[in-house]
Write a structure and sequence with these properties.
Blueprint (H helix, E strand, L loop, with lengths): L3 E10 L7 H18 L6 E7 L2 E10 L5 E9 H4 E2 L2 E2 L1 H10 L7 E5 L2 E10 L5 H13 L20 E8 L2 E2 L3 E2 L2 E2 L3 E3 L8 E3 L6 H7 L6 H19 L2 E3 L2 H8 L6 E6 L9 H12 L2 E4 L5 E9 L6 H26 L15 E3 L3 E2 H16 L7 H13 L7 H5 L6 H9 L4 H9 L14 H20 L13 H14 L2
Antiparallel strand pairs: 1-3, 1-9, 2-3, 4-8, 5-6, 7-8, 9-10, 11-12, 13-14, 15-17, 16-18, 17-18, 19-20
Amino acid sequence: MSLTDHLLIEIGTEELPPKSIQKFAQAFANSVQEQLQQLSIAFEQVDAFATPRRIAIRVNDLMLKQPDTQQQRLGPAVAAAIKDGKPTPAATGFARSCGVTFEELEHIATDKGARLGYEVKTQGLPTKNFIEDIVNQAINKFPIPKAMRWGNSDETFSRPIHWIVALLGSETLPITVKGLVASNVSYGHRFHAPEAMMLTSPTAYEEQLEKAFVIASFEKRQAIIQQQVAAIAKEKNVTIVTEPDLLDEVTALVEWPVALLGSFDAEFLEVPRECVVSSMAEHQKYFHVTDAKGELQPLFVTVANIESKDPQAIIDGNEKVVRPRLADAKFFFTSDQKTSLEARLEKLKNIVFQAKLGTLYDKTERLQKLAITLAEQFKHTTAANVETLQRAALLSRCDLVTDMVGEFPELQGIMGAYYAKAQNETAAVAEALEDVYRPRFAADALPRSLESSVLAIADRLDTLVGIFGIKQAPTGAKDPFGLRRAALGIIRISIENQ
């Protein structure tokens, strides 16, 4: 009889938030692994699976029983345990606590002399006795930002749970999770294979689901998407840009990926590249396409969650949807330019930066003074530098109240630079408006000029001093104002830009 077997747990749900499923799967695997280790139950490894409709783990080569344990218990000294040839109350009490008679106790030599003792043997329990508690504890620790209830139940989860699978080898474990009793019944793709299916074993899990049009492995699904995208790129002699975050999100949206190439009207290329890319990525989850020179092309790649007999119908539908999205971006870009950046300053008075630190207008005023104070520390600062700094500091937050940035917050600074150029601001001012946010992340580019560097440092210093000043320092779990990133940005700019 085998001492190990494989354990499969699957939680079947409504479509999960795409940006969360990897976190859920990893949290599930980590928690189960930690609990098994605490119970001294050995296993080979824990595999995690995540699709829009399921989170699952497979524990490979799991010991079917806890190991037996032996614990040596020491009692009173032998000299004090026997009086007039009879055991003392201390000796009989110790024997009773060990569940044996006095005669069954042993004499054990220690540094402090002989003592009564007993080897307590504890038999390990079957592993399946712990599974229900392990799974429930793991699920309750999922990093769910906002849980929901469904039906008449008081149970909560990220999305309604429809089925639970619990298999230890070929044995179904009828554990209860979130009010549902587990079985060996799962479901395939919502459209290609919606019927119930009986899972036969944990080792056959991926193969059975694949026959039901579900690629259970997140990594395998992502690799398939990349292969399909590469094939389209080679066929059309273009480059398809798959940004890691967008690629993760697209992978989390499909169970059976099918990449398709669509197009849009070339007139939308008149809009800044970043606007077109953000519009397609944010709203439609499309990958954008460039030529050999890196120029944006009027093409996109969408990843469908269905293998259609008429893929052109899916392409036509996506092309029909993307047009109004890009038309909105074009409208925002045109409309925003009817009002100068400087004319938008008043609107900053209505946007609170932090209750105790005032509005974005207040921050702008502080930034102007601080940037000049810092600039004076540099011997090679000229009147032109100071003028550029003052102007850039003044306009640095004005694009936040444009329609384009309101729709696509990730374009802050980028749109400020575009609008500044269109409104005849100097190239140095336009550059500083974009660079004030650099570096946005660890590997991001740094500000390109002295003025940009000073402005970026001043902006971060104002935030750091202000937030620490009102005693809102970041914690291990929360850093809402990005103070760690701000501090690292100052260090990188100071060192790398000398």
